[in-house]
Recover the amino acids of this structure.
């Protein structure tokens, strides 16, 4: 199993540009989570999906952030327009759902907005 | 989900057991205790979880007190590669999916 795959690993973009982060969950996992990590705020849950349906997006900071999961094997997190304060490491995680199961995290995308 | 309290940091000598405590005095009957760790520059890694019985796997042991108000994660023979931030999380499943909220965790330093 290749695990949770995120791309790109690193992204440097200019303020105002659109950024799209991608995630491929583990096959068979029906829950997918997007987290953001910064030194100041730690790991923050942005949004999570269950069976491709967004369940809780209360952690999405602003309307500039949007996430989609068009099918069970792919999800995107988009920031438009990007701002320097969006600089962070963004992690995607997946799980089989149900009680008693842990998450598997990807390696993350390090985003730098200049 | 119940709140957890962990020490900010701990040291452990290489080869010795690392015992990481976690307080969760407001835990509810259906809430599980989970442990994750995050090694520098990597994504968090699931370690172990339990409801009320002690659990052991290839990575660690989890000891939950009888009243379930606290737990201890034990790394039996810590190595330098176990240096990481360890997160104790309490959460309950729900029918619409579930979410895990991470706190600040305990920064474990394993020293040679």
């Amino acid at each position: 199993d290749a695990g949770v795959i995120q791309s790109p690993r690193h992204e440097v973009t200019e303020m105002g540009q659109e950024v799209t982060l991608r995630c491929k969950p583990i096959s068979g996992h029906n829950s997918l989570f997007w987290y953001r990590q910064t030194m100041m705020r730690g790991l923050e849950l942005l949004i999570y999906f269950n069976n491709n349906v967004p369940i809780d997006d209360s952690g999405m900071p602003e309307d500039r952030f949007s996430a989609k999961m068009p099918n069970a094997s792919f999800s995107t997190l988009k920031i438009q327009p990007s701002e320097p304060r969006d600089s962070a490491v963004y992690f995607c995680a997946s799980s089989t759902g149900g009680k008693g199961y842990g998450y598997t995290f990807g390696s993350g995308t390090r985003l730098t907005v200049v | 989900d119940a709140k957890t309290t962990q020490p900010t940091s701990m040291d452990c000598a290489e080869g010795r057991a690392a015992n990481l405590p976690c307080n969760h005095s407001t835990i509810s009957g259906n809430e599980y205790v989970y442990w994750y760790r995050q090694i520098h520059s990597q994504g968090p890694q699931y370690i172990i979880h339990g409801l009320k019985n002690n659990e052991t796997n290839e990575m660690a042991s989890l000891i939950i007190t009888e009243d379930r108000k606290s737990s201890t994660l034990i790394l039996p023979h810590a190595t330098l590669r176990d240096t990481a931030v360890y997160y104790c999380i309490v959460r309950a499943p729900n029918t619409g999916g579930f979410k895990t909220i991470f706190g600040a965790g305990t920064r474990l330093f394993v020293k040679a």
Summary: The mean pLDDT of chain B is 91. Strands of chain B lie at 9-13, 18-23, 32-38, 45-50, 55-56, 61-64, 70-75, 84-91, 106-111. The interface with chain A takes residues 30, 32, 34, 36, 42-47, 49, 51, 92-93, 96-104 of chain B (CB under 8 Å).
